[in-house]
Amino acid sequence: VVSSESGYHEAVFKSVRRADRECSIFLRDGTCGQDECSVRCRGLVTRFWNDSVGVPAVTIDRFYKPAHDDYEYYDLTEQCVDKVVAAVPCTDVCRRADSTVQCYNDQYGKLDEKKPKFVPFTKLQHRRILRECAAMLGISRERLYLFRRNGVEYYHDAKCLLRCFMLREGLYTDEDGPHFKRMSLQCEGNYNDGAYRSKAKSCISNLQDQYLDRCSLAYRIADECVNGEIAVKNIFVGAVVQLSPPDLTNLLSGLPSLLPGLPTLLPPITLPTLPPFTLFPTQPTTPRPAITLFPPLFPTQPTTTTASPTLIPPLPTLFPPLPTLFPPIIVAPTTTTPAPTTTRAFTLLPTLFPQLGR
């Protein structure tokens, strides 16, 4: 049985029988000459199988019911899967899928083929649902770029977009809050942990008592209450990153390196240069007038050399000027005729006594 009820929006539920019926139609003409691949196809349709991993995901346990008195089913299943991985090469995807799933049939529990189970969404489906929600809420791709660059928590319309995303995927309702089993299947978490669910329910109850608006309540539940291994917020942010436009400046600047032979179609982008920001402005270079707090005690000395006033008048000459000890020497001009020689008396000291007669 496959169902997609109105209350679950885009959520899809399929049983093992329904998946096998679809695969029988797909594989009617064989699989390009390969062996039986119906079990691998079942895993691809219900999304518990990935060829690159080569073993079933933990979400396969939603189709099995372990016995109440069996406490070794998990370890026995793991041991069986390890033996298959060691024996069957990863390139033989059909036989690897058939053998590993048989380990679950033999060791894990009873297979429930009739009851429909939630089918996790793919990354492509996440982007499609997010694009539809953005269109319904009138959110542009440029707005998504702001969500990606600055953070979802700073925009109320981003919180409303997250609420729409969880509603459309059937992971959340305004009345009951998050659906733990579906969130666990979507994020490959462990919803059997009773302690985790009890803690999350207490967190949700506290937020519901705060009378928040629906968008804020949905965001805070996803951010605070189910932010562990059930990280639906991380899936939402990843889809926002995929749908938001890239940074055009970095994209255009990297084109020459990506395509060296590409001619230049656009002129180089020159970003404006902002003036440097200085937390403390520099002091002005013009000198400021000196501030005198107290008057000078002594007058300032003049900067130019001036004659200081004479306090003591000049003293009279006590002694008359002494005669010249050496008279000036007169150099006669050079002539052919020698100059006459005159004899002058040399007086060292003035005559204190008159000459006596001879």
From TrEMBL:
GO CC, any one term: extracellular space
Entry similarity comment: Belongs to the PBP/GOBP family.
Compartments in which it is found: Secreted
GO molecular function: odorant binding
Entry keywords, A to Z: Disulfide bond, Secreted, Signal
Main location: secreted
A single GO BP: sensory perception of smell
Protein name: General odorant-binding protein 45
